[in-house]
Write a structure and sequence with these properties.
The protein is an alpha/beta fold. Helix content is 39%, strand content 12%. It has helices spanning 13-25, 48-54, 57-77, 81-112, 150-157, 179-186, 190-198, 214-224, 280-295, 310-320, 357-365, 380-383, and strands spanning 6-10, 30-32, 115-119, 139-142, 162-165, 208-209, 230-231, 256-260, 303-306, 328-330, 342-346, 373-378. The mean pLDDT is 86. InterPro entries: Coronavir_polyprotein_1ab (IPR050534), DNA2/NAM7-like_C (IPR041679), DNA2/NAM7_AAA_11 (IPR041677), P-loop_NTPase (IPR027417), SF1_C_Upf1 (IPR047187).
Amino acid sequence: MVDRHVLACAPSNIAVDNLVEKLAKNKAKVVRLGHPARLLSSIQHYSLDAILTASDSTSIIQDVRKDIDKALSKSRKSKEPSERRHLRQEIKTLRKELRQREEKAMKEVLIGAEVVLATNTSAGNDGPLGRLPMDHFDLVVIDEAAQALEASCWIPLLRAPRCILSGDHHQLPPTIVSPEAAKKGLDVTLMERVVKQYDDKVVRMLTTQYRMHESIMKWSSEQLYNNQLKADSSVQHHLLKDLPNVQETEETTIPLLLIDTTGCDVMELEVEDELSKGNEGEADIVATHVTALINAGLDARDIAVIAPYNLQVELLRKRLSHVFPSLEIKSVDGFQGREKEAVIISLVRSNKQGTTTILTKFVGNIVSFTVTCAILKGSRALASK
């Protein structure tokens, strides 16, 4: 069976935008729902608003709007009651025509798309999809399903007879603000329940990865996937030095590197907000390494700098963003599913207990990137655990 109409969703705007980029490369006819201001600039021309603006219906709709403006202007100036009544009726008729033409134009664009993309929560009947019958789509695909609240998944799932949940329940869970809600089960995702209840009956694990060097993959494969992951030959031994215009240096010939900051006098910042942490010395080391990679020929756009705390993200941006504007510096959830050649992770601190919660979360989530080189900055003692 060929799926002629697919609804593709994800829990976040960035995850949906990643899907749009991939589908557009394969020449699929896509429409991205959502406010243009929330979309990546590179995919805004695939937004519903942009497509409607460029459609043949736009000129007619604009003419109707002009007619409404003229009638409103005449109505304000007119002193004759009969003329004003006539103009009010004309405005009412024109507004009805405008709504009908806008609805028709939007429906035509949506029906003509092979793939409509939206966040889970914007796939309901109160948005543009309300113009389509509930049985319009043949298939619903939810990407990053392991990061989505179950309730949000049911919004798109009701729109098609078949579905595919794509994701990895070993990676980032959904963000739950309320601890009480988490205790009562809100933190259990639909994907987790499906894996637990049905397992091999419906679950298929993709064991060949095309994202990273086998050395980067090894930790995740051993710790999370029972050594089932295999690196495709196209990435198995791929290094930064193999990229066009990148020189062979110490930084570009090592796929996985730990820079041990133990004893380097890089102390954690003492701040009133105990929820956020920072380390200026470690931020300086990151800045030095980013500069070395760029001097070797790597484009700043191909580097991701990640930290577990917002304060450290701020410190890193202050040092680097004005020098390399295209360099992305974010927390890990802002990068998941992205393609970068090098990922630099600033771990910021090691706790007194020596637990590895942050490290496990970060290294585990490297598997969600397409990455050639991964660099960790932190304590060797912590990393060795």
